[in-house]
Write the structure tokens for this entry.
Amino acid sequence: MNKRKIKASTLLAYAFLLILTVFILYPILYVVLGSFKTNQELVLGGARLFPEVFIIDNYIEAWQLANFARYTLNSIFISTMVMLGILLLSSMAGYCFARKDFPLKNVIYGLLIAFMFVNIGSVSLRPLFELTIHFNLHTSLWSVILICIGMSQATNIFLVRGYMNTLPKELDEAAAIDGCSFFGIYYRIILPLLKPVMATIALLSFREAWNEYILPLVFTINDPNKRPLTVGVISLKNVSDGAAAWNIMFAGSTMSIMPIIILFLLTSRYFMSGMTVGAVKG
């Protein structure tokens, strides 16, 4: 009887996961396979996935119509700078929260954790834009980079601090006895041991910056040459006369998501280990 109950519950779990997988993968497959269709087939074909004929010319047209080389360089620049800034600040902040005692430490950390569950979204766009005008950054990609770095710290600090709690404090004490400073311990001892969680944070931050849409749209609206892929791809929808060219836009969207998929496949091992240890121990 118990075996039957266990088997039934296992089947239900697998069925739920299968349905969830379909809901997650279907939109992605629809875009990727839709990029090989004609626009008429895409508009009139309903929810059918596979095209009647695979058309490669959509990708050539998308690359030629949009300034894809410039958009790609902008996306790489933004995502790389955001990733490096987050890695530096989150690792140092997580190290301080895990190893340093200072006034109101728990209060400040609690507020940071609270921000993990708060998404103010577009409400903050106006004050952020006014702030960048004050510093004369509103026409620069650095405005997008600095805002992305500042708004992505809570989760990353949580992961670093959690991973730090798995490292024995005897390492710090031994280094301090040998004359190593607080920063020296971080740079020479702790930072090399943070590779798994740092790989996780690198992938997450790069992905978030790569997929960011609202901030680049606001800060590059007057300068198309500074647009990243997420903003530039949308312009492909209106390249044809009359009906929107969804097939061309889908081809551009597919090209824009391929770097993230490749990056995840190359770093998935480090990503999973860093997420597991950092989240459980946090």
